[in-house]
Amino acid sequence: MKQEASYLTVDWYRELGYPVAMLCEELGIARSAYYKHKNRAKPEKEKQDELLCSIIREYHATFDGILGYRRMAMFINRLNQTYYSQGYIHRLMSHLGITARIRRKKVNRKGAKPNYVKENFLARNFTASRPNEKWLTDVTEFSISGESRKLYLSPIMDLYDNSIVEYELSFKNNNQLVFKMFDRAVSNNPTAKPIFHSDRGFQYTSCAFKSKIEKANMQQSMSRVGKCIDNGPMEGFFGTLKTEMFYGKSFSTMECLKEKIGSYIKFYNESRYQKRLKCLTPIEYRNQALLT
Question: pTM (2 decimals)?
Fold first, then answer.
């Protein structure tokens, strides 16, 4: 409504004791128009818009600004048992000036010469028909102001449900970072024999890791040189994680950052709805498969 902001201003200052006539004169609106607005019956569509705007503000604050209009629509529909289109939610978010944080572009770095390499058996086939059929992994780094150290995250993603099966955090990007994560994943999933896909990082091309893969009876697969898209879902997870819990944030210590990353991965697995998973969380989707 054209004069809505003025009417709300009058409401605000009226509660503070200012006379309506003076407020209307200052704002250049007719007093009769103000009272007509106050006494009118709001259309159902306007009531719905107001309700959804309040929900959007609440979810934007609750989920720390990570929800774009597509995911905002998903969260609203899941948590309120409703159906509103993405276009409708997009229009309301634009009206409120609410947007999600923007993802930064990945910086590519050259790796060391590998001891051995494997073919790209995954071949960008990022679909899986059952849990533990295809696992992806990679390492990403974090740095914060005032700290000389870097923090490294090494996770494993299951392509069936995009869940993070296991992860390890360390201040050293070495073999132990990957080996500890892999050993725990194997121990916690003793029957899993997935295709295990990674880039050609030094940990994955070492003879020691090759022995671990063979002992676990897994098929190893590696991205081609310079082809980050060969490990696309894993790269996508890193981008999502950093956009939603790292970029634009301040962390007093590395220990605080470690705690936040762990909390985010728990949120991602258990509470973050994904459209590809029929608006379920990764764990909900995984549990459905295990029950059938």
Answer: 0.72
